[in-house]
TrEMBL record:
It comes from the Eukaryota. Keywords: Hydrolase, Signal. Residues 1-19 form the signal peptide. Belongs to the 'GDSL' lipolytic enzyme family. Residues 25-224 form the SGNH hydrolase-type esterase domain. It comes from Serendipita vermifera MAFF 305830. Pfam families: Lipase_GDSL_2. SUPFAM superfamilies: SGNH hydrolase (SSF52266). This is Carbohydrate esterase family 12 protein. One of its GO terms (molecular function) is hydrolase activity.
Length: 258
């Protein structure tokens, strides 16, 4: 009896220890915000009700792929990863401007191993790489931990800003994200396209109501739609069904946005 009980407790503790989690790596469009800010990141609603395993939102406002590596955000997140975990990497909003921009967030233009050495405002030097180099590094290091990386392209800015019909043209980081995912052989979600599909169906008036502060950050209602778009994007072929087995009934009910 005691031996049986001990085995049961051991089995239960193993199941708890081995339960997978989904880690979110991103910027302010994914991060959690206070009500006083008037904006919300899509990582907040996507963590509630769509997956049967925990979702850990590690997104950092103002961050880029470059700063995730340089400032230690990725290192700290990597230490949390266990074999079998999932890591969604979605960056790009803060990665433009080039390596010498005053924001100190921009990457080198291109997708290869090009570098530029810059002097930061604190007087130290930094070797700046391409967006794909940074994301590729995160992918490789996640895989080395036994985790499963998923690359997601950045969400669109308000696609109806100053136009009457939706602007569905992505910037270069959409292609960068898709290409590094293909190069590394990991799942890819075109979150940009999925959001465009959602916004197109909702129309200009409703979509623009989701951007009360600026053209980049959504309010809580908008974040809910962006989270819905991400779930729909996970159902497309490039995502390889990576998280489908963890969908709740709420996620299963969402249409694919491909």
């Amino acid at each position: 009896m005691l031996a049986s009980l001990g085995f049961t407790l051991l089995a239960c503790s193993f199941q708890v220890a081995s339960a997978a989690s989904i880690y979110l790596v991103g910027d302010s469009t994914m991060a959690s915000h206070s009500a006083s800010e008037g904006i919300q990141g899509w990582g907040v609603p996507v963590a509630t009700g769509y997956f049967s395993i925990p979702v850990v939102n590690r997104a950092k406002s103002g961050s880029s792929a470059r700063s995730w590596i340089r400032d230690g955000f990725w290192y700290n997140t990597k230490q949390l990863l266990q074999s079998g975990d999932f890591v969604v990497i979605e960056l790009g909003h803060n990665d433009g401007g080039g390596p010498t921009a005053s924001t100190q967030r921009g990457s080198v233009v291109g997708e290869g191993d090009e570098t530029v050495t810059v002097t930061l405002t604190n007087g130290t030097t930094e070797v700046v790489h391409t967006f794909n180099w940074y994301v590729g590094k995160m992918i490789d290091e996640a895989v080395a931990k036994g985790a499963h990386p998923i690359v997601s392209s950045q969400t669109p800015n308000n696609p109806y800003e100053n136009v009457s019909t939706i602007n569905s043209t992505p910037n270069r980081f959409e292609g960068y994200a898709k290409n590094i995912a293909a190069t590394k052989g990991v799942p890819f979600v075109s979150h940009f396209k999925a959001c465009i599909d959602v916004y197109s169906a909702l129309g200009k008036t409703t979509t623009e109501s989701y951007f009360p502060i600026d053209h980049t950050h959504t309010n809580e209602a908008g974040a809910a739609q962006v989270a819905k778009a991400f779930i729909g994007g996970l159902k497309c072929g490039d995502a390889k069904g990576v998280l489908n087995s963890y969908f709740t009934s709420a996620a299963a009910a969402i249409s694919a946005y491909c």
